[in-house]
């Protein structure tokens, strides 16, 4: 479906096919363990950091199956959600586009930082990237927390790799 068709509201929205997966990404990013055990700051920034980390793991898996269109649709849902969040925080229309553009740039940078670590199952490299890209609570051992998060994310990546494409898109089997 073309952008113009979606804009004019003709036909079904193709993003609906990946919406369950997007909701699963957000659900996984809100797991209390990240904030209570791994000391990610329970703030807007910390939650954003976890969403981008989980979304990166999912996008790497989706792209591995040559589902690039679905990966792009996930990115669109990310933008839609971030746009809505910014509006809830009272950001006005004049700067929304600029802020969303910045958030997309951050997602792209993090996806780049995490991708090879997920593909190569490189826990130390992933831990380093997490340490650079995660907001932690004050006074914690960020290296130890980053290693724990890296282990969790690589475990998630491994579970995702064992699921077929349909299970990934429907997100029911993702834990």
Structure, described:
The structure is a single chain. The protein has 175 residues and is mainly α. The chain has one domain (15-169). 74% of the residues lie in helices and 0% in strands. The chain has helices at 3-8, 19-29, 32-36, 44-64, 68-88, 93-120, 123-133, 142-161, 165-170. Helix 4 (44-64) crosses helix 6 (93-120).
Largest sheet: none
Q: Secondary-structure element order, as H and E?
A: HHHHHHHHH
Percent in strands:
under 5%
Tell me roughly what share of residues is in helical segments. Answer: over 70%
* Oligomer designation: single chain
Q: Give the strand tally.
A: 0
Mean pLDDT: 88
Alpha plus pi helix count: 9
Number of domains: 1
User: What spatial form do the alpha-carbon principal axes imply?
Assistant: globular
Q: Runs with pLDDT <50, length 5+? A: none
Please sum up the structure shown.
This protein has 175 residues and is mainly α. It has helices spanning 3-8, 19-29, 32-36, 44-64, 68-88, 93-120, 123-133, 142-161, 165-170.
SSE arrangement:
Elements: H1 3-8, H2 19-29, H3 32-36, H4 44-64, H5 68-88, H6 93-120, H7 123-133, H8 142-161, H9 165-170
Helix pairs in contact: 2-4, 4-5, 4-6, 4-8, 5-6, 6-7, 7-8
Throw out a few tags for this protein.
mainly alpha; about 0% strand; globular
């Amino acid at each position: 479906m073309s952008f113009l068709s979606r804009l004019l509201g003709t036909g079904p929205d193709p993003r609906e096919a990946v919406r369950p997966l997007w909701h699963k990404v957000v659900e996984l990013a809100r797991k209390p363990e990240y904030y209570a055990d791994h000391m990610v700051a329970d703030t807007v920034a910390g939650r954003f950091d976890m969403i981008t980390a989980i979304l990166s793991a999912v996008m790497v898996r989706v792209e591995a199956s040559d589902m690039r269109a679905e990966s792009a649709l996930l990115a669109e849902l990310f933008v839609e959600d971030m746009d809505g969040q910014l509006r809830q925080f009272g950001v006005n229309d004049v700067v929304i586009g600029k802020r969303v553009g910045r958030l997309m740039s951050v997602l792209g940078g993090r996806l780049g930082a995490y991708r090879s670590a997920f593909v190569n199952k490189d826990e130390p490299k992933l831990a380093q990237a997490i340490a650079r890209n995660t907001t932690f609570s004050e006074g914690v051992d960020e290296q130890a927390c980053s290693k724990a998060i890296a282990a969790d994310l690589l475990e998630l990546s491994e579970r995702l790799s064992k699921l077929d494409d349909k299970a990934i898109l429907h997100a029911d089997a993702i834990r």
